[in-house]
Design brief:
106 residues, mainly alpha, 3 helices
Length: 106
């Protein structure tokens, strides 16, 4: 073998290689966009519905308990007003939750 450097220089860039590099770059960018976590409208809407269901349930029970306590306090019917209004509040809360879940998406 010889100790001399090869006479040929580096080969110029081929147009096909350049086009392939551009396509790979575009595909990598699209893949990065596709793999980014999506916390957009769908997640926000479901989160809002869940919060509304929870607030309806807690509000119905708490409101029924409060009104029942008021009735018991002023009417003197110790547990009956409290229990009756608590069950009425639970009924109203479940009715509202069923209305929320049966609503058609926009």
């Amino acid at each position: 073998m010889s100790d001399k450097d090869p006479v040929q220089g580096p080969v110029g860039e081929d147009a096909r290689i350049r086009a392939l590099d551009e396509r790979l770059k575009d595909l990598r960018e699209r893949e990065e966009v596709r793999n980014q976590p999506k916390a957009g409208v769908e997640a926000d809407e479901n989160y809002r519905i869940g919060n509304r269901v929870l607030s309806e349930l807690l509000g119905g029970i708490a409101g029924g308990l409060f009104l029942g306590w008021l009735i018991d306090h002023f009417a003197g019917t110790s547990p009956l007003g409290l229990l009756g209004m608590m069950f009425f509040g639970i009924f109203i809360a479940f009715r509202n939750i069923i209305r929320i879940t049966n609503r058609r998406p926009d």
